[in-house]
Amino acid sequence: MSDSSNDTLVQTQNWFLKAVPNPTHKNITTQIGCHLEEVAEMLTVLKSDNPFQSMVIADAIASLVLLSDRLKSYGEDTYVREEDRAELLDALCDQIVTATGIGTFFGMNVPGALSEVNRSNYSKFVNGEPLFNENQKVMKGPDYTPPELSPFI
To answer: What is the pTM of this model?
Structure first.
């Protein structure tokens, strides 16, 4: 992996460290909910001419949205055991790798797009500080600009 790709991922991690330097259990379950929301969003663009496959995709979206919403609002009783953290890290790394693979196979510049998403995420901050909603999710500030991803497709 090139240094710029590593720098981009470090920039992403630094955004989270700046936004939430001391994450609470609520921050963690909200972030997991946000992650699942993005997986559901990805599935909404997945189409099939097979009616059964389309139904399975729709069911997966509905389940992910339900779980995402519950984690963001009522995640107090959901946790990862200390002894399972290595397995969690392996799964997270595998998700980064497989997501990069999907984008690459579609001819997308994932590292470039991630850099643009980072730029956009940093624009959410107000005077260098994050704004949060009631679920502890970072919200868009008045100077927010959405990512322009078309150059990376």
So the answer is: 0.88
